[in-house]
């Protein structure tokens, strides 16, 4: 019998000890004792040799635990990381800040403030991700008469009709009693073609005389005109699966205090990082960490955020908080905060039950993140989760971390430029010996990296967080700071979806901040090399530490530059790669059993069996299957080569379009097959990958620079300026 089981048995048999540990007083005493022990370990003075041994022991333990990544091992790794990080920060604040001049003080305190921010986010991140709840669907009653009525809202403003059609047909296909399901398109664009489509398709159509409060106002207006017990909300491009309500609604019937249930935002098209860097489905995208792990961890603390789409909300509690929040531009998260403050529960199911279009361009992606950052700063300023009534401590901390996350703009820029203070100006931002800095900083950085890699491995690869933040840092910094000064500044911007990029190009405007940071770091390397070669009084170890840091910043900055090289995207309707059973019925009466390679709203890719052949231009019927159901669609062969067919559907009527959506985009198994199935993170492999992308960024920047120079030299305006004028 293990020591843990033996102790658990003794504790269980001792009724007094068991009652004490279960009581609130016992829990507080245990927490106090743990904090006291942590304080002793953190503040224990060690000389350089002892600290190096401590570092080696912690790293060895972390690597051993990583090989057994079950929950208790992860908790042990988090404990090691917290100890190493707090020891570093204690040493940093007590032993490395004895600045002797104003320059050292400005750069030194700037860096330590950025480090304190990063440490706080690290610790709160551990709180959120240490123990994901992993909630499973709860079964509904067999008697459908007990199932509630549901209104499905699809808010839209400027999205194309083809995008709305797909979402609306999928909403109609949700497996729910038809007399208890009502689908509404909420058209803030007030377009006649949308009204006509909804009338033909049997979908409710709601408009309002103005666009006051943007999406939140649109939803609140519909709330007054409909009467369902629950509301399911989908953005215009988020296509629900048939199982959406049956998977999520059971928890509401089990828990009468449950007000909102959120499911992941899953995307079947690449975002600008994935498209421009060619990492789609090979590297987890920017949002997968939040929907794959953070929201699941929030659920443990009853602090799941409403994310504006792919969610179910109970009408009564929503009306009780005054509808969707309108005070900030992130109305979704603010609404969840209000529901939690009133004592209602929120929940998360980490099962993709809808899929949508990711942002297409880097500028569009940045615009979306600016709105998120501004909105979270507005909530922090006007409805701070640390203040006010109604929230438990865990909820307050989860909401706090969500808001603090978007304050990374300034700290990230500090980390990208900090070593330049020494390389350019000789500023001593650490008042300590180089080896002592390494002895305390390395365990903090390395153990945190290994721990986060173990926790996040399927949803965020190492070093990619730095790339994502570096791309966005400059752009979110200003709106966040302005929102802290005046929360009413800024407006709601709609993220464009369903567009095309007809040619590849380098986005100089968006890349400008990264190019500046990259250039400064390259100059920093030159300055460091000059110090090593020509400054006899310099500390070689100090220069090498700063050069290493600067080389890393060059890799991250160059990778950020690579993201600005917009790849061509000629499809307005991205294809979804999926193998589904199919048959082809040819004009000569032959039938070919085959499988799909991919599908879209307008066409489908087919993998033919060996020996089969179909001519280009031939019209045929393609059958798709789900369980024992078959649907047939007319199509024409657009290309035929190497056993692969590209089919375009012929004109489909409303009912055929609805059936096509049901047989393709509405299938939950299509999204579940790729959810969280990417390669598990290996830190060294991720570093090599990011470095390779950084090298690509340098090459792209060089080519773009020469192309821009050639274009300017050949422009007529350049020749006019160069032509000498007659006196």
UniProtKB/TrEMBL annotation:
Matches recorded under Pfam families: Glycos_transf_2 (PF00535), PilZ (PF07238)
Cofactor(s) the protein requires to work: Mg(2+)
Coiled-coil spans in chain: none
Claim: Glycoprotein is one of the keywords in the record: no
Domain of life: Bacteria
GO biological process: cellulose biosynthetic process; UDP-alpha-D-glucose metabolic process
InterPro entries: Cell_synth_A, Glyco_trans_2-like, Glycosyltr_2/OpgH_subfam, Nucleotide-diphossugar_trans, PilZ_domain
Domain PilZ: 569-665
Catalysed transformations (reactions): [(1->4)-beta-D-glucosyl](n) + UDP-alpha-D-glucose = [(1->4)-beta-D-glucosyl](n+1) + UDP + H(+)
First-level EC class: transferase
Domain called Glycosyltransferase 2-like: residue spans: 152-321
Entry GO CC: plasma membrane
Pathway terms, separated by semicolons: Glycan metabolism; bacterial cellulose biosynthesis
Family stated for the protein in its record: Belongs to the glycosyltransferase 2 family.
Function according to Swiss-Prot or TrEMBL: Catalytic subunit of cellulose synthase. It polymerizes uridine 5'-diphosphate glucose to cellulose.
Enzyme Commission number(s): 2.4.1.12
Subcellular location: Cell inner membrane
TM spans (from-to): 25-44, 50-65, 72-91, 106-127, 413-431, 437-455, 513-532, 538-565
Membrane topology classification: Multi-pass membrane protein
The organism's taxonomic lineage, starting at the top: Bacteria, Pseudomonadati, Pseudomonadota, Gammaproteobacteria, Pseudomonadales
Protein name, per record: Cellulose synthase catalytic subunit [UDP-forming]
Keywords (A to Z) from UniProt: c-di-GMP, Cell inner membrane, Cell membrane, Cellulose biosynthesis, Glycosyltransferase, Membrane, Transferase, Transmembrane, Transmembrane helix
SUPFAM superfamilies: Nucleotide-diphospho-sugar transferases, PilZ domain-like
């Amino acid at each position: 019998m293990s020591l843990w089981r033996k102790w658990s048995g003794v504790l269980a048999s001792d009724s007094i000890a068991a009652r004490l540990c279960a009581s609130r007083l016992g829990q507080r005493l245990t927490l106090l004792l743990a904090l006291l022990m942590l304080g002793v370990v953190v503040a224990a003075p060690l000389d350089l040799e002892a600290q190096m041994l401590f570092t080696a022991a912690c790293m060895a333990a972390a690597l051993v635990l990583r090989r057994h990544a079950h929950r208790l091992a992860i908790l042990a790794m988090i404990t090691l990381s917290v100890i190493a990080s707090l020891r570093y920060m204690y040493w940093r604040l007590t032993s490395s800040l004895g600045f002797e001049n104003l320059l050292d003080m400005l750069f030194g305190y700037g860096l330590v403030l950025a480090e304190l921010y990063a440490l706080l986010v690290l610790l709160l991140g551990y709180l959120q991700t240490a123990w994901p709840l992993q909630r499973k669907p709860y079964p509904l009653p067999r008697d459908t008469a007990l199932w509630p009525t549901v209104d499905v809202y699809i808010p839209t403003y400027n999205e194309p009709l083809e995008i709305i059609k797909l979402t609306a047909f999928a909403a109609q296909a949700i497996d729910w009693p038809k007399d208890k399901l009502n689908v509404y398109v909420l058209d803030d664009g007030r377009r006649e073609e949308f009204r006509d489509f909804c009338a033909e398709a049997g979908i409710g159509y709601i408009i309002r005389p103005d666009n006051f409060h943007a999406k939140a106002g649109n939803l609140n207006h519909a709330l007054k005109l409909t009467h369902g017990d629950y509301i399911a909300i989908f953005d215009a491009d988020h296509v629900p699966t048939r199982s959406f309500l049956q998977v999520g609604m059971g928890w509401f019937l089990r828990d009468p205090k449950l007000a909102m249930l959120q499911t992941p935002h899953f995307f079947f098209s690449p975002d600008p990082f994935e498209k421009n860097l060619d990492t789609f489905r090979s590297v987890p995208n920017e949002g997968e960490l939040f929907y794959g792990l953070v929201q699941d961890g929030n659920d443990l603390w009853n602090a799941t955020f409403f994310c504006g789409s792919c969610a179910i909300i109970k009408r009564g509690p929503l009306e009780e908080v005054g509808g969707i929040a309108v005070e900030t531009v992130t109305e979704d998260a603010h609404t969840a905060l209000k529901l939690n403050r009133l004592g209602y529960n929120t929940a998360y199911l980490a099962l993709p039950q809808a899929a949508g279009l990711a942002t297409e361009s880097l500028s569009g992606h940045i615009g979306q993140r600016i709105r998120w950052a501004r909105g979270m700063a507005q909530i922090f300023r006007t409805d701070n989760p640390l203040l006010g009534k109604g929230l438990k401590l865990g909820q307050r901390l989860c909401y706090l971390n969500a808001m603090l996350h978007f304050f990374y703009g300034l700290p990230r820029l500090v980390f990208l430029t900090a070593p330049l203070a020494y390389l350019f100006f000789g500023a001593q931002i650490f008042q300590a010996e180089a080896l002592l800095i390494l002895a305390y900083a390395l365990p903090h950085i390395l153990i945190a990296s290994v721990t986060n890699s173990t926790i996040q491995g399927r949803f965020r690869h190492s070093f990619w967080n730095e790339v994502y933040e570096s791309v966005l840092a400059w752009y979110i910094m200003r709106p966040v700071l302005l929102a802290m000064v005046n929360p009413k500044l800024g407006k709601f911007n709609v993220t464009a979806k369903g567009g095309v990029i007809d040619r590849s190009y380098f986005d100089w405007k968006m890349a400008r901040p990264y190019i500046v940071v990259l250039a400064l770091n390259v100059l920093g390397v030159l300055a460091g090399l000059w110090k090593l070669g020509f400054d006899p009084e310099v500390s070689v170890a100090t220069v090498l530490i700063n050069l290493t840091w600067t080389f890393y910043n060059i890799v991250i900055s160059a990778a950020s530059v690579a993201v600005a090289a917009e790849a061509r995207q000629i499809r307005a309707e991205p294809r979804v790669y999926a193998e589904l059973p199919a048959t082809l019925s040819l004009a000569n009466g032959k039938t070919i059993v085959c499988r799909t390679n991919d599908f879209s709203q307008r066409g489908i890719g087919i993998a033919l069996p060996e020996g089969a052949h179909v001519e280009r231009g031939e019209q045929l019927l393609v059958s798709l299957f789900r369980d024992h159901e078959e649907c047939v669609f007319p199509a024409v062969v657009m290309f035929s080569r190497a056993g692969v067919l590209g089919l375009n559907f012929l004109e489909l009527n409303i009912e055929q379009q609805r059936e096509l959506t049901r047989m393709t985009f509405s299938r939950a198994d299509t999204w579940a097959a790729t959810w969280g199935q990417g390669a598990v993170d290996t830190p060294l492999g991720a570093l090599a990958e990011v470095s390779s992308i950084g090298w690509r960024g340098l090459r792209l920047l060089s080519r773009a620079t020469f192309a821009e120079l050639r274009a300017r030299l050949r422009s007529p305006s350049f020749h006019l300026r160069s032509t000498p004028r007659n006196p």
